[in-house]
Design brief:
Protein name: 3-keto-5-aminohexanoate cleavage protein
Keywords: Metal-binding, Transferase, Zinc
Number of strands: 16
CATH topology: TIM Barrel
Strand content: 15-25%
Cofactor: Zn(2+)
Structural class: alpha/beta
Pfam families: BKACE
Radius of gyration: 18 Å
InterPro entries: Aldolase_TIM, BKACE
CATH class: Alpha Beta
Number of domains: 1
Distance between the termini: 45 Å
Length: about 300
């Protein structure tokens, strides 16, 4: 039987800025429409950030999440995955504000503090749309993305145990797998868990395909292959090649304009759905099926959309 692949779609993120692509969804209406279209194209999981409606700045304000999440939930059965990473400039309290209120089925969780920089991108841009963008992008050269062991423990206890949320464990480096193993030993993580391996971010693992084999073998040794679902995230131009290799190796895949603004060489993606559809075509050529939201929920042991509760 053909193996089904879970497609995640990271719709807007907090990395790219409006100047970088006119197709990056930053208004509530655009985020909603692109998220729903991505789900219709085959994404079983929608990874969501919020932005300020007026100028597209990354936002942790629950009011801005309220502008997008209920509408997306009403229009699609896809799993809603809320960031707990926010952006490099947000405090942990800010990053947890909406997830703790909403209690989503899934939330992202970065597995270690790290340098996380996109500052070289600023060199290519001569004219910025909004005043906040240039200092935001250039400033990542001198920011540490904080996720200490105590931060991670707090998220696992308060959001995981307290709200029944399960996690997309974002691992940017080999050591992050060992951090994950530590919390598994502590009893704060239980299988089946979702390991998102991220390649190509400046400050994390490089996009070399050889790194994928190292990560896969290490995860198998630490966890046992039956204990986790593996997924691949390739940043920028490395997105489709790495995801294709990963799918052939048994991984799930993540696309979306948070991770890559392009559809092909020199061609901006006009929507998140464009990337989902392209990935779906590639998976079909590999004789792989696309997992439904129901299959994703079953494989990741999620609580299900009807169990989501909101505390007002």
């Amino acid at each position: 039987m053909a193996r089904s692949v879970i497609i995640s779609c990271a719709v807007t993120g907090a990395i790219h800025t409006p100047t970088m692509s006119p197709h990056l969804p930053v208004t509530p209406e655009a985020i909603i429409e692109q998220a729903v279209a991505a789900a219709d194209a085959g994404a079983a999981i929608l990874h969501l950030h919020a932005r300020h409606p007026d100028d597209g700045r990354p936002s942790a304000d629950p009011a801005h999440f309220e502008m997008i999440v209920p509408a997306i939930r009403e229009r699609t059965d896809a799993v809603i995955n809320i960031t707990s990473g926010g952006s490099t400039s947000m405090t942990l309290e800010q990053r947890l504000a909406f997830p703790m209120q909403f209690g989503p089925e899934m939330a992202s969780l970065n597995m270690g503090s790290m340098n996380f920089s996109i500052h070289p991108a600023a060199r290519k841009i001569k004219q910025w749309v909004h005043p906040w963008e240039q200092p935001y992008v250039e400033g990542t050269e001198d920011i540490i993305f904080r996720n200490t062991f105590r931060d991670i423990r707090r998220i696992l206890i308060e959001l995981g145990e307290g709200r029944g949320t399960r996690f997309e464990f974002e691992c940017y480096d080999l050591g992050h797998l060992y951090n994950l193993a530590h919390f598994l030993d502590e009893g704060l993580i239980k299988p089946p868990f979702f390991v998102q391996s991220i390649f190509g971010i400046l400050g994390g693992m490089g996009p070399d395909p050889e790194n994928m084999a190292v990560i896969r073998n290490t995860a198998d040794r630490l966890f046992g292959r039956e204990s986790y679902e593996w997924s691949i995230l390739g940043a920028g131009r490395h997105q489709m090649p790495l995801l294709t290799i990963g799918a052939a190796m048994g991984a799930n895949v993540r696309v979306g304009l948070e991770d890559n603004l392009y559809l092909g060489r020199g061609e901006l993606a006009k929507s998140n759905a464009d990337q989902v559809a392209k990935m779906a075509r590639i998976l079909g050529e590999l004789s792989l099926e696309i997992a439904t939201p129901a299959e994703a929920r079953q494989r990741l042991a999620l609580k299900g959309a009807p169990s989501i509760t909101e505390s007002r």
